[in-house]
What we know:
This protein is an alpha+beta fold. It has helices at 5-21, 32-36, 53-57; strands spanning 23-24, 72-73, 101-105, 116-120, 124-128, 135-138, 143-148, 151-156, 160-168, 171-180.
Amino acid sequence: MRRRPEAVALALTALLSGCAGNQLAPLPVPARAAQTTAQPSSAPASPALSPSPATTRSSRPPAGVVPDAPAITLPPQPTTSAPKPKPTTSAPSSSCDEAVLVDLDLQNTELALVPSMCFHIGGVLRMHSIGPGLVEATPESLRDYRYEAAVVTLRFLRPGTVTVTILQDTQTYTIEVVVIT
């Protein structure tokens, strides 16, 4: 289906102007006589205005076009907004990650630059490239601890503060993980 750029521009203009003022107006429909009249032989025929077999066979407008449709006026929409819910914790919610997975590659991460983290319940901290027994997380009641194939996975189960201690290259690093609801 081939569309004329002028028709598309008119349709977009009508749509945008209708949305801005909450009013709808009919799209302009070119008259059938202008499309089917023969052009003078002295002027070269323009491909955009020359009649096509589809326009000369039927006198009905194309599907979806309603000629001489009345303008429709919509009532103004209320501009009230719903109140924002208040956070249930004292920690700012923008600094906490939702219940997501955070991967730390311990071979490429400077642990001294990661002093604390914040998660919602269900969040997971996964640490790669670490040996068995080199990561501790206390208290045990707030987290689930799994170790497999040089990967430690901590899932945070309850709100509170979990202290994660990592022994790496004869140095001990501590990450405080705050878990909120």
